[in-house]
Specification:
This protein is an alpha+beta fold. It has 2 helices and 12 strands.
């Protein structure tokens, strides 16, 4: 055998390639380069989009059993909830129908009794919608301004309400705006009626520090007032129509050394966040005028010794 035909390459076991450290540095640099290139030049984004498009059917197919499982459970739960809601709605409808029938009967009975007693019909309260523009700048008062004034027929002393109850009363009327003093103002007062005991009293506003903002004054220490009593307008002041929610009793403090109880209230209609209100016409506008007092005729007694006719 000639020397030129011999294979002088080392066997694979003895071959010397790049060291492990060299390969680590090379592939680390390549990874950093690819990340920078993808971040700056979006090099891998088309490949990523194509791969996501190709794998989308597989993802959808793999998620089908899980969606069927969850969808079936949601369907059964929704079906049971719908059946429960239907039962509750039917019960509420039945209760409302009973109340509607009773209200119709009471309305008819009230009309017949009024006709029998020759009472005049209940006053129709006229109202107009208004929007709260801003609060008064005085930090020691609770007043707001509305976008209705004398040009729109707003009267001084007109009650202002919303869907929850009485908010306050118009205290100043301008051409296009009006100032409303809220029930929680320290100068506000409103006559009320306890719906449980039918006892009349007066509620006043108090400075609030985050607690109750009204109180019931001049009530004796043994007055029948309990926490939770609902107070409504009595309708005897000629301003507020009767039956409007005013406040609810939150606490009653009876002290032996004081003759009056301290009764704190919370308004039925919170003034925070109120945007739209109704301005009512004072009920005194629709009442007949009061008769003028008849002057008394003074008759002088006869003098002594004078002859009587």
């Amino acid at each position: 055998m000639t020397l030129g035909t011999l294979d002088r390459t080392p066997p694979p076991f003895f071959r010397q390639g790049p060291t492990a450290l060299t390969r680590l540095v090379f592939f680390s640099a390549l990874a950093v380069f690819l990340m920078v290139a993808d971040t700056r030049f979006r090099v891998v984004e088309p490949l990523r989009a194509g791969l996501a498009m190709a794998l989308m059917p597989l993802q959808v197919a793999a998620a089908v059993p899980l969606e069927i499982w969850h969808g079936g459970g949601d369907y059964l739960r929704g079906l049971r909830q719908a059946q429960a809601d239907e039962s509750a709605a039917r019960a509420a409808l039945a209760a409302q129908s009973v109340k509607a029938t009773s209200a119709a009967q009471l309305a008819g009975e009230n009309a017949r009794l009024r006709a029998l007693l020759e009472l005049r019909p209940a006053l129709a309260v006229r109202s107009q919608a208004a929007e709260v523009m801003y609060e008064a700048a005085d930090p020691f008062s609770r007043k707001v301004f509305i976008d209705r004034g004398q040009a729109q027929g707003v009267a001084l002393g007109a009650p202002v309400i919303n869907e929850a109850g009485v908010l306050g009363q118009v205290t100043h009327v301008y051409a296009l705006t009006a100032e409303v003093t809220l029930l929680s103002d320290k100068d506000a007062a409103i006559p009320v009626l306890n719906t449980r005991t039918q006892q009349r009293s007066a509620a006043f506003g108090v400075p609030s520090g985050g607690g109750p903002s009204m109180e019931l004054r001049f009530m004796s220490g043994n007055a029948d007032v309990q926490a939770g009593d609902e107070l409504q307008t009595s309708g005897l002041d000629g301003i507020y129509p009767p039956g409007l929610p005013v406040a609810r009793v939150v606490s009653v403090e009876r002290r032996a050394e004081a003759g009056f109880a301290r009764i704190l209230l919370t308004p039925a209609a919170p003034s925070a966040g109120v945007r739209h209100v109704l301005v009512l016409e004072p009920t005194a506008v629709q009442l007949p005028p009061r008769p003028e007092p008849v002057p008394e005729v003074l008759v002088k007694p006869p003098r002594k010794g004078s002859a009587r006719p």
